Amino acid sequence: MKNAVAILCGGGPAPGMNTVVGSVAKIFLRNGWRVIGLHGGYSGLFSKEARTVDIDFLYADDIFNRGGSALKMSRFKPKDSDFDSNFNLDLFKDNNIRLLVTVGGDDTASTANRIAKFIADKGYDLKNIHVPKTIDNDLPLPDNTPTFGYQSAKEAGVAICNTVYEDARTSENWFIVSAMGRSAGHLAAGIGGACHYPMLVIPEMFHKTTITIEKIVNLVISAMLKRKIMGVPYGAAIVSEGVFHALSEDEIKNSGIVFSYDDHGHPELGKVSKAHIFNEMIEAKLKTLKIGVKSRPVEVGYEVRCVRPIGYDLVYCSLLGIGVYDLYSRGESGCMVFVGASGEAKPLYLKDLQGADGKIPPRLVDIEGYGATTLIKNNLQFIEPADYEAAKKFVANPEEFDFYKILNW
């Protein structure tokens, strides 16, 4: 029986998923392997009715430049009890699977290591290699290398937000955009910087103060006031959803927004439009201040996860896929494949990325770095002390909307 490689995709999609899968398949097929795709992420490995597909060259060639994921995805994460009662070891034995390739985030990688150890304890030799992905760009890869999918998602977001800005100019309105990014503001910063939005709000900006709803709202209104002084009756602000996730539960409860709550009593933030919430809060403050600005919400999230990958990710993901075979041929296992500027595949181990608590800390935007500070100082528009006198035409206390005072910079 031929050696077989099994591939699964866990978590949420990112542009380039199919490129990785197609590239892994092509290189292993070329070297005489059978390639098996697993649907449903890890859920298929903990079921006697695993959904599989044999991937041949035509299948791989058909999907490699498409968006989305031909292998259906899942966020299923097995419990320890699932291994003893539900794990489908026969799937590996009956199909002579020697390598499990997983595509996903750090949770997906950690589960792959658990599976490899479990199978080894059962006396079956299985290697596992992980391909890390996230459009949030928040995995701490060496040399500030982007995570695959980020560049394509950013490009799609820029297309949306450039159109939004054109609408703002045309209708002389404001738009409040929310971008994905639970822990870090890379996507919002990349899109906002590319589109020259006059205000950007990301979690990293609050490194010297506590994030509150009032501060988020006042930052956006600061840009609105500055543009009024400039005689510009339109604009757009982009806010990373991460600032909402960083709010205290008391802040969320006092926001006036009605949420559903999970079994642990936490508000289910993933079910609501952050853009709508931000816009409602800003409109309420504008009404109190009696400032005549119309604003509209726009969400940038699921719209960018399944777009067709751009050239950057097509090349990058192809190298990652080929790199899986390269690492396997060198005897590597229990690692992630990393491809830097040289294009050479290298092993990256979770232990080298994990903090003292065993978790991988997110890579944040370097808010004090040259790139970020240059864009903030020169692209963003906001109230400073020099604007106080002119701003008094619109608000009695312009210092409340001073960008640097809000952030305690």
What does this structure look like?
The protein is of the alpha/beta class. The chain has two domains: 4-148 and 309-353, Rossmann fold; 150-305 and 379-407, Rossmann fold. Helix content is 40%, strand content 14%. It contains 16 helices and eleven strands. The chain has helices at residues 17-30, 57-63, 80-86, 89-94, 106-121, 150-171, 186-194, 213-230, 242-245, 249-253, 274-289, 311-329, 350-353, 370-378, 388-391, 403-407; strands at residues 4-9, 34-38, 52-54, 97-104, 127-132, 174-179, 199-201, 235-240, 295-300, 335-339, 345-348. Strands 3-2-1-4-5-10-11 form a seven-stranded mixed β-sheet, sandwiched between helices. Strands 7-8-6-9 form a four-stranded parallel β-sheet, with helices on both faces. α1 links the parallel β1 (4-9) and β2. α6 crosses α7 and α8 (213-230) crosses α11. The protein is elongated.
Helix content estimate = 40-55%
- Give unreliable regions as ranges: none
Q: What is the highest CATH level, the class of the largest domain?
A: Alpha Beta
- Indicate the proportion of strand residues: 5-15%
Which shape, going by the Cα principal axes? Answer: elongated
Q: Cα-atom Rg, whole angstroms?
A: 24 Å
Q: Can you summarize the main beta sheet?
A: 7 strands, mixed
Class from helix and strand fractions:
alpha/beta
Query: Number of DSSP helices?
Result: 16
